[in-house]
Amino acid sequence: MEISTVDTVENDEGRKSLTSETPGTPLGPRDGSSDRRLSASTERLLTTLRAQGEPASLAALAATTTLHPNTVREHLETLVRAGLATRTRGQPAGRGRPAWSYEATAAISEASEYAALAVVLSSTIARTSSQPSVDAEHAGEDWGRSLARGRGAAPTTPELARDRAVQVLDDLGFGPRQDPSAPSTVRLTRCPLIEAARSNPHIVCNVHLGMVRGVLSEYGADSAGSALTAFAEPGACLLVVPPVDEP
Predict the structure, then answer these.
(1) Domain boundaries along the sequence of the chain
(2) What is the tens place of the pLDDT at every residue in 171-215?
(3) Global pTM?
(4) Are strands 227-233 and 3-4 parallel, antiparallel or unpaired?
(5) Which CATH code fits 3-16+28-240?
(6) Which of 142, 177, 234, 239 has the highest CB neighbour number within 10 Å of its CB?
(7) Is the backbone of residue 207 left (phi > 0), alpha (psi -120 to 50) or beta?
(8) Would you say 176 and 169 are in contact if contact means Cβ atoms under 8 Å apart?
């Protein structure tokens, strides 16, 4: 098993929780399940995005709205985190990394659907399975393959497959943050199932790891080397998404 967790301590109510070595500092990501209210300017950009009818680049949206590109980028990140927009990396065409394209989603975000389904799944596995960690990972792999199949053409390189897997995590509300110097290292700063993950990490977190492996496998990428350290540090879990970067 490639998931590691930290010790638990009991709080005043007798419930167990995960803590860091610094008293009062919780380990792991923030809750990613709560709905976020959009600002008026973000709502306007969402309206513009929905009116496009096809994926649009950041530059095109900046030109349409006359907003500064940095402002548009911030609004787009908010929409993606809320599950109201998706972003897709274009295929390589010459030198440099291809630009992101953005598209509005349906009213019900993937993050909301995921949270509801995963809670039921984790409860069922915990109650019925003789190998809950293994079965949780297998279930996550099946779901990851399904998510990947619904996202169009497969990436053409392992690096693009990794980017697409991170994008799936972003769309589901995990707030992934890649290390620029080592893109295979990803910090998950949010979790739509934070309470369930704290109480039963070997099921919930294995579903998350299996999901990443399923996305990679569906895209023809090798998932060997993928690993998740649950509640690794204050504010994040740590995920390794192949291909593992060279030093």
Answers:
(1) 3-16+28-240
(2) 887 889 998 888 999 999 988 788 778 878 889 899 999 999 999
(3) 0.61
(4) parallel
(5) 3.30.1380.20
(6) 239
(7) alpha
(8) yes
